[in-house]
Amino acid sequence: MNSVQGLLAASVISIQNSCFIYPACQNCFSRLILDSRRFHCPKCGCAGEAKDASYRYRLSLKIADTNDLFDITVFGSCLDPFFGVTAENLQRYIQEFNQLWEETNTESSTRALVHAVETCFIGKRFIFGV
């Protein structure tokens, strides 16, 4: 699944959603189902303490080359250099920020993160392995 079939030079037109980080199963990378104390992977059945859940990047983009538009999703640690930290650390920073500022509505921190990601990616040209 990680084999690159080709390279595509394209520009990012838009960010498709505001959820850049997700709790990921260590075994199969599927999205975990979290409650306040536990996590569970619906795909492989892995379970554990919610505090031990790991996180992974998932960035959905609309991109364009000279001829076509594409919807792509970029996963994992290849995004670490763009965010400056691992997904795990970014999630921890977001939680700490929200606790520090006693944010019950996390909308303001989400808006700030979305704006930063849009600034970093929209209008920029990248080479994507597809």
TrEMBL record:
It comes from the Eukaryota. It holds the Pfam family Rep_fac-A_C. SUPFAM superfamilies: Nucleic acid-binding proteins. One of its GO terms (molecular function) is DNA binding. Residues 9-107 form the Replication factor A C-terminal domain. GO terms for biological process: negative regulation of intrinsic apoptotic signaling pathway in response to DNA damage. Keywords: DNA-binding, Metal-binding, Zinc, Zinc-finger. Gene3D superfamilies: Nucleic acid-binding proteins. GO terms for cellular component: cytoplasm; nucleus. PANTHER family: DNA DAMAGE-INDUCED APOPTOSIS SUPPRESSOR PROTEIN (PTHR35537:SF1), DNA DAMAGE-INDUCIBLE APOPTOSIS SUPPRESSOR PROTEIN DDIAS (PTHR35537). Belongs to the replication factor A protein 1 family. This is DDIAS protein. It comes from Hylia prasina. The lineage of its organism: Eukaryota, Metazoa, Chordata, Craniata, Vertebrata. The gene is Ddias.
